[in-house]
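W.,

You were right to be curious about this one. When I first looked at the sequence I had no strong expectations either way, so I just let the prediction run and decided to look at it fresh. Below is the sequence, 276 residues in total, followed by the output.
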Amino acid sequence: MDYKRILTIQDISCVGQCSLTVALPILSACGLETAILPSAVLSTHTMEFTDFTVRDLSDDIPRIAAHWEKEGIKFDGIYTGYLGSTDQIDYVMDIFNKLMNDGGKKIVDPAMADFGKLYPAFDAEYVEAMKKLVAISDLTIPNITEAAFLTGIDYKEEYDEDYIKSLVKGLLELGAKEVVLTGVSYDESSTGILVASDSNYQYYKHEKLPISCHGTGDVYASAFVGAYLHGKSTYEAAGIAGEYTVKCIKNTIGDDSHWYGVKFEPVLPELIKVLY
């Protein structure tokens, strides 16, 4: 494996095991030199914590990028997570254009919605801006809700394979070269990931657990990106990340004091073992 440098752009929730506090250790464990560009700093994540602090870093993003450009710093991959505004999406598009090595991968997690609804901070204008970012991506990693908003297809809680393929087709037509659609479940006991490019569809099925935990989307996306840039195929990386995320949730089940995230750190050796 070549020693690759990746940049991940998303917020820092200082406590809560999500966003950059998940991405940095997981990507580093996958053998990647990991640079970060925070979009905001929060004292905690916003789910069930109260009175958290937030500092928007939008004004810093173009200044940091300009410094990197001056220093000749470029990246073999850029992976975006939660972006707080349409301005930040525009900044990311500029970074894609200026700071990517030849052959580098643009990977977009359009973190903006779940369970059929946009996150409170976002609106239709944000969705339109995110479409532009997905359109220039080499690979996008949405959940079903995000795919529905991006394609303009009605969200469904109950669906069949034709519905899922219509979402993926819409994302590919939007411009994404590859799609990794998460949370695809065709029965009560399993869930999985649909990996697609052009007319090639591959489904990876894994165990469905009876609970959900905050931050597992970030754990999955980070593990996927780490495995993918480590040299695994898209389908292999999708499966590795899925199994790792399941193990992280299992490692957290039963610990009622750990309600705010998943205990992913003790499971990192198992991820490393798969990759090396």
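Here's what jumped out at me. The longest helix spans residues 234-252. And, maybe more interesting for your project: The longest strand covers residues 33-44.

Coffee later to discuss?

I.
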